[in-house]
């Protein structure tokens, strides 16, 4: 299995899809990286030569912020918003949607799947009599 940027990418997928398993690389960036390294996007990851894997690894690590560095940068950006007291920072601190979504409904995942209305919750397990 090829390892790029500390991530083991799946062998049985096309390389265009396989490198999107790296945090910070999506579909569009994957195509740009493959075009820059002159690798066919339809090639399977297991069919890559060691030279192609090395070229991918070098190009991605030199030209793009990925994995740990990108996660750290995102955390620093959120911390900065919290420190300067912006509205967005306070929404991040309260673990609520930041980009203007409604919160009366549709934020169950952010709020921890809270069910407060009658009938919307799960039925209790049947107790033995």
Description:
One of its GO terms (biological process) is translation. A two-stranded antiparallel sheet has the order 1-2. The N and C termini lie far apart (55 Å). With 129 residues, the protein is mostly helical. It has helices at 15-18, 27-37, 50-63, 67-83, 87-93; strands spanning 3-4, 7-8. It has 2 domains: 3-64, Helicase, Ruva Protein, domain 3; 65-105, Ribosomal protein S13/S18, C-terminal domain (30s ribosomal protein s13, domain 2), CATH 4.10.910. The chain contains 5 helices and 2 strands; from the N terminus they run E-E-H-H-H-H-H.
Structural class: mainly alpha
- Gap between N and C termini: 55 Å
Strand content: under 5%
- Across the major sheet, the strand order is 1-2
- How is the biggest beta sheet arranged? 2 strands, antiparallel
Order of helices and strands: EEHHHHH
What is the count of DSSP helices, taking H or I runs of 4+ residues? 5
* Subunit organisation of the chains: single chain
Shape call: flat
Count of structural domains? 2
């Amino acid at each position: 299995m090829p390892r790029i940027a500390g991530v083991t990418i799946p062998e049985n997928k096309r390389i265009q899809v396989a490198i999107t398993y790296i945090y910070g690389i999506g579909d569009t960036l994957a195509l740009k990286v493959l075009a820059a390294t002159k690798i066919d996007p339809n090639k399977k990851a297991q069919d890559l030569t060691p030279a192609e894997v090395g070229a991918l690894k070098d190009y991605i690590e030199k030209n793009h912020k990925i994995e740990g560095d990108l996660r750290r940068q995102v955390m620093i950006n959120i911390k900065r918003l919290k420190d300067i007291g912006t509205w967005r920072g306070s929404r991040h601190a309260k673990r609520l949607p930041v980009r203007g979504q409604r919160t009366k409904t549709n934020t169950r995942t952010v709020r921890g799947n809270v069910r407060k209305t009658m009938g919307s919750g799960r039925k209790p397990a049947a107790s033995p009599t």
